[in-house]
Amino acid sequence: MVGFGTSEKNAVTSDKKTRIVFIVFFVLCAAFFLEIIVYKLVLPSMGKPKITYSGENYISVEELEMLIAPMKNLNWFSFSPEEAVSILSSNPAIDSVTVSKHFPDKIDVSIVEREPVAMTFISVNGRSVPVQIDKNGVLFLCTETGLQDGSIPIISGLPVDHLSQGMRIPAKYLALIDQIAHIQTLPQKYFAAISEICVVPKEYGNYELMLIPSKSRTRVLTDRALNEDALQYMMVVLDVVNSIEPNVSEIDLRYGSVSYSTR
Prior knowledge:
single chain
């Protein structure tokens, strides 16, 4: 009986040691995994997030970072995608913005830049500054796109004398922008042959157009219907008139007839 009791006590003691070892092991494992979670997830989310940008073409990453600078010291939890979208959208050259957060420390910023349809010039501090116009009539600072191949026409005579955030051209000129945008979809680069489109105001708020060819000193007066047929007709008339009278200063295609004046 005494030997049995001693053996039972030894077994109980061994079981206790085993349980203690297992408990210590699991505590150490839990602490290890907790430390991994803290270092891999919690601490990164408490520091400055890693922001990546996509969609930028003419706008540089440095410009985007300058815009979002007021939020650069926020941690991942405090970073507001809605506020970031609002700040980035303040740049007139940006059409739309998407900001998404990825735990624990990633933020993706995707932008869509405005595509210029035409450009004009405004006076800023006494100097002429090129400004582009998108399909919705929004004005934004000029980029390189379209300036080399002549696909972006210059429009003068628009009643725009300053540039402010989100500014648009007057609504009555949106039809002209739509016509230009359609012509740009055609395979022929018609605007490479036109150096300037002048808006000529008329009575009662209407307007007409004066086209200035890039390879001729002859101005062409036309109505508001700017389309492929009108441009082809203008080019044919230019060739015919200049072959007859090389000293033509202006051709008038309005009212369904052709007339011209010499210098």
